[in-house]
Amino acid sequence: MEWYLQSYLAGIDKIIVGKKFEEDHVYHITSYDTETLRKQGQDFWDLDDCMNFLCSFMDKVKSQLAQKPEGTVLLSNYDYYNKNEHVDFYDIAPGSQEAKFFDFLPDKFKKLFV
């Protein structure tokens, strides 16, 4: 499901996967058609449910961030075994040592959104 959703959201039609041994040596390469992955998983998960959850989650993130100072890191926790849409959020103060751990986007990229 993870490969499918990432590819679906990015508009990628084909995924190339390298299977490897523990020593990181690739021993087999396989390609998957993104739509075929969805069909193979349809007995285990529903695309509509996933997209509805994603939209709901992003709305919650937007609402949480609107109440926080610029630069706040927002962490989320979701217990998917309980099959509900409750998500816990934890924020980390901007500029804190802990926040620096999550600051991985280059400044050049961030400036595109200012």
Report what the structure shows.
The protein has 114 residues and is of the alpha+beta class. The protein folds into two domains: 1-44, no CATH class; 46-114, no CATH class. The protein contains five helices and four strands. The strands form two sheets. Strands 1-2 form a two-stranded antiparallel ribbon. Decapping enzyme for NAD-capped RNAs: specifically hydrolyzes the nicotinamide adenine dinucleotide (NAD) cap from a subset of RNAs by removing the entire NAD moiety from the 5'-end of an NAD-capped RNA. This is Decapping nuclease. It comes from Acrobeloides nanus. Keywords: Hydrolase, Metal-binding, Nuclease, Nucleotide-binding, Nucleus, RNA-binding.
User: What overall geometry do the principal axes of the alpha carbons give?
Assistant: extended
Strand arrangement, major sheet = 1-2
Q: In terms of per-residue confidence, which ranges show pLDDT below 50 for 5 or more consecutive residues?
A: none
Query: How many strands appear in the DSSP assignment?
Result: 4
- Provide the succession of SSEs: HEEHHEEHH
| Cα end-to-end separation | 33 Å
Number of helices: 5
* Largest sheet, strands/sense/barrel: 2 strands, antiparallel
Helix fraction, binned, reads: 40-55%
In angstroms, what is the radius of gyration? 18 Å
Structural category is alpha+beta
Strand residue percentage: 15-25%
Mean pLDDT: 86
- The total number of structural domains is 2
Domain RAI1-like: 1-110
Subcellular location: Nucleus
Pfam family, one: RAI1
Cofactor: a divalent metal cation
